[in-house]
Hints:
- With 308 residues, this protein is of the alpha+beta class.
- It has a domain at 81-236.
- Helix content is 69%, strand content 18%.
- The protein has helices at residues 3-77, 94-107, 141-149, 165-191, 195-227, 255-307, and strands spanning 81-90, 111-122, 125-137, 153-163, 228-236.
- A five-stranded mixed sheet has the order 2-3-5-1-4.
- Helix 4 (165-191) packs antiparallel against helix 5.
- The longest helix has 75 residues, at 3-77.
- The model is unreliable at 23-58 (pLDDT under 50).
Amino acid sequence: MRRRPRLFVTVLLALLVVLAGCSGAGDSAAGGNDAGGEATNLDQSTPAASSGGDGGSADEAAQSGDAESASSTQFAARRELIRTGEVRLLVDDFASAERNLTAAVEARGGYVSDTSQQVRGRENETWTTGTVVLRVPKENFSALLDDVRAEGEVQQSKTATEDVTEQVVDLEARLENLRAERDRLRTLYESANETEDVLRVGQELSETQEEIERTEARLRALEGRIAYSTLTVELSEPRPEYEQIRRAAWYDTSAVTAFLDSVDGVIVVLRAAFVGAAYAAPYVLVFGLPLVGAALFVRRRRWLRRLR
């Protein structure tokens, strides 16, 4: 009777162990299935995410390339050019040519910026030369150049074009940075509490403002030269022609002409001597007579000594 309870307990414990093992195996299998599902889902989502990331990078690269291409195209389309020219003209009348050039440049929307004039002469003949500087809108430069060349005989003509696009872009970018720096300093100045900070920020703000004004002045000057082209015109009237008279050699002169020329020479010499004597007479009277009197006085004293 004692063995049966022990056997019953042993069998019951064995059944509990078996049930516990089956339950743990089921949980492990379920967990393995869940993990496998998650791994499968992760593996399936990874290529999609990878492909999405590659697509995003490609789109960003394409957009960046398009932006750079657009910027390059805009820079190439924007060309800031300074055009200048010089023309040397031979004109019949300086004043008339100057009036015509003034009317021509004003008709083209420009103006005369500088003029100079100089009158030259030789004997009884004179001629005028000078320079007229014309400023005209850049789109009318070629038309004005044709008007100037038609005003007289062209002796020299040349034009030049300077590309200042890079300078303009640099100045504009510098202005933008300086203005941003000025705004930042103003914010710091308003929020500063310490006296030292206020003075330091105020000094930096003043220097930045001065730099902005200088840069703006340079940009305005450059833009003015771009908007209005410069044409310098040198005007000159023709010089009078002179005939040089060739004198005959002395041995080609006739005897009578030579004698008369000699008589004239003698007369000139006598006249010069007479005029010289007239100039010298006052000096002789003032300085010569006292000297003569002194010499006579000395000679008389010597003569008296010899007599004694």
